[in-house]
Automatic annotation (TrEMBL):
It comes from Boudabousia marimammalium. It is a multi-pass membrane protein. It catalyses: K(+)(in) = K(+)(out). This is DUF1211 domain-containing membrane protein. It is found in: Membrane. Belongs to the TMEM175 family. One of its GO terms (cellular component) is membrane. Coiled coil: none annotated. The keyword Repressor does not apply.
């Protein structure tokens, strides 16, 4: 399968995820500011989840662009990642309604953890297909940032069983760390875009 098809499908799914989240936003009746303040937890949950989906979209764009092709393994890893992403609206609505309850916060953390883990598996599949000496393998390296993010999500989910506010601190830290798209892949994508096609190089020779 061409990488463009997988990226287009993924973009469509993520767009639907955001659409579902915003459609679930509801306000109580009233013309004053208390209408918004009462909905503050729901709005904050939406903002955080929107930020996470946006971060994934930007990094996925660069990841797929540097992939040479899509194997069966890559395709299924991408579908697995999208599966967990489609559950973010459910977790977002629940944690927004009960922001300081342990179980909704735990559920939200588990979904983020599994989303990050499946994305890491997708990235690993693409790197493995390219080979250990490929440009993307050298750029990704040990991927400590990605692995530490997965660990942070796991700690956040565990922390929710004791104090949900601990989980929110971890969520904020990870979001801030990833607010800028993955520079490693962005630079590699720029190099690929700047390099002339092989056919042009051959004709010049």
């Amino acid at each position: 399968m061409d990488t463009g098809r997988m990226e287009a499908f993924s973009d469509g799914v993520l767009a639907i995820v955001i659409t579902i989240m915003v459609l679930k936003l509801t306000l109580s009746e009233g013309p004053d500011w208390t209408t918004l303040t009462d909905a503050a937890p729901v709005l904050m949950a939406y903002v955080v989840s929107y930020l996470y989906v946006g971060i994934y979209w930007a990094n996925h764009h660069h990841l797929v662009k540097v992939a040479e092709s899509v194997s069966g393994t890559i395709l299924w890893m991408n579908l697995l990642w999208l599966f967990w992403m489609t559950l973010i609206p459910v977790a977002t609505e629940w944690v927004g309604l009960y922001p300081f309850s342990r179980i909704p916060t735990l559920f939200y953390g588990v979904i983020l953890f599994l989303s990050a883990l499946s994305y890491h598996l997708l990235q690993t599949s693409i790197v493995r297909q390219a080979g250990p000496d490929s440009a993307i393998a050298r750029r990704i390296g040990k991927d400590w940032k990605g692995k530490l993010s997965i660990l942070a999500y796991g700690l956040a989910a565990a922390g929710s069983l004791f104090q949900p506010i601990i989980s929110y601190a971890f969520y904020a830290i990870v979001a801030i760390a990833w607010i800028v798209p993955d520079v490693r892949l962005e630079q590699l994508f720029g190099e690929i875009e700047a390099s002339p096609p092989e056919s042009d190089t051959a004709s010049n020779e």
